[in-house]
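Re: NDP structure - here you go.
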Amino acid sequence: MIRVCIAGVTGWVGQPLAAAVEAAEDLELVAAVARRARGESLGRLTISGSVEDALAVPSDVFVDYTSAVAVKDNVLAAVRTGRHAVVGSSGLTDDDLRELDEAARSAKVGVLAVGNFAITAALLQRFAIEAARHLPSWEILDSAYAGKMDAPSGTARELAWRLSEVRAPEVEVPVEKTVGDVAARGATVNQSRIHSMRLPGYTIGLEIRFGQQDERLTLSYDGGPGATPYVAGTLLAIRRVHEFVGVVRGMDRLL
Ligand SMILES: NC(=O)C1=CN([C@@H]2O[C@H](COP(=O)(O)OP(=O)(O)OC[C@H]3O[C@@H](n4cnc5c(N)ncnc54)[C@H](OP(=O)(O)O)[C@@H]3O)[C@@H](O)[C@H]2O)C=CC1
Ligand SMILES: O=C(O)C1=N[C@H](C(=O)O)C[C@H](O)C1
């Protein structure tokens, strides 16, 4: 039986994830965190108001679906107390992930950090890696609901990181030589350009556009209004994270 602690248990993903953990025969939800629901009952357990309190309960895997602001400290606290961690929350930078990797290696635990647990997003990433082997120029468009605090999205950051392992995209006019406002060319993440839009009416989406002379290729991912696609991937990560030591990024290591 794998004992699970979920931070963000009342959230859009945390809620259905907690139900799925409780329904699984090999998993047991032993602790949960959400500040405003502190003290409330969830099945047989009482929701903690802080990660520190939740980590006082023995558990094997810590799952974070809180926010870009809280995730780094939460996961550091979890690995330092010997928990494997599954990171759903977005917002972690490469430097944050390096710091988590050091902490996880010294505690000899695994951390699976996945920008997007949906299979369709994982497939986009795989197809984009293949396309980047053949097409040298691309830019990324990240779209999300108006209230999403972090930018670029975790999905976009992870894609840029994976593409950097293939090559750096070719640009004709170096971005710093832009005439006008350099910010109009988007953010540089691992050498890819990412343009983030935050708009009412949107859920989450990612597009990568490749271009070369006289032809274009666009790969596009759209997340819908429900959190179901993230739950299955997160359950898989909970079951497999003990196989790793240090930080592992991306769903493909699990597929
Ligand atoms: N990797 C992936 O596939 C996915 C990633 N995400 C990412 O996951 C994160 C959460 O998303 P979502 O479920 O929509 O968020 P919600 O805002 O719906 O839920 C956040 C949850 O975390 C709790 N929370 C927030 N801040 C803290 C804190 N400092 N300490 C403890 N608990 C906290 C909230 O309760 P309270 O405020 O009461 O504490 C709530 O339970 C985001 O970063 C999002 O981008 C989302 C979907 C998929
Ligand atoms: O904020 C969200 O909701 C989501 N964020 C993730 C991200 O930052 O990439 C992905 C997920 O589809 C939903």
